[in-house]
Amino acid sequence: MTKTNAERQVEYRARQQELGNMGDQRLNTMIDLSATYGLERLAKCYGVTKKAMLERLIWDAESNALEIAAKKTNGVSRYYGGTLKLKLQDKDTFVPRRLAYIIQLI
């Protein structure tokens, strides 16, 4: 008998749990279509998986946020405590350093 997509997905997730995937956590979310295409293009450009590209973008953005937090009173502890608030529209706050440098060159 042919399995449904839902049945195959349940089996896949069970296998992933058996393998352990230590340190990994499932992320289910909907994102803008242009962001999806951008992620695909970036991953292809750098020759990595979408997972690896997304992780790198998050790490770069977090590193940048921590640099800014370090300049504020108790900023790093407030960042890790979830109480530090930065403005998303501020390009120096959000855009990873390398990308900010490229924007300055344009």
Ordered list of secondary-structure elements with their pairings:
Elements: H1 5-19, H2 33-46, H3 50-70, H4 75-81, H5 91-94, H6 97-105
Helix pairs in contact: 2-3, 3-4
What do you see in this structure?
- The chain is an all-alpha fold.
- It has a domain at 49-106.
- Helices cover 66% and strands 0% of the residues.
- The protein has six helices and no strands.
- The longest helix has 21 residues, at 50-70.
- It is elongated, with a radius of gyration of 19 Å.
- The model has no long low-confidence stretch (mean pLDDT 82).
Number of separate helices: 6
Helix content: 55-70%
Class inferred from helices and paired strands: mainly alpha
Q: How many strand units? A: 0
Let me know the largest β-sheet: none
Given the C-alpha coordinates, what overall shape results? elongated
Low-confidence stretches: none
Key descriptive features of the protein:
106 residues; mainly alpha
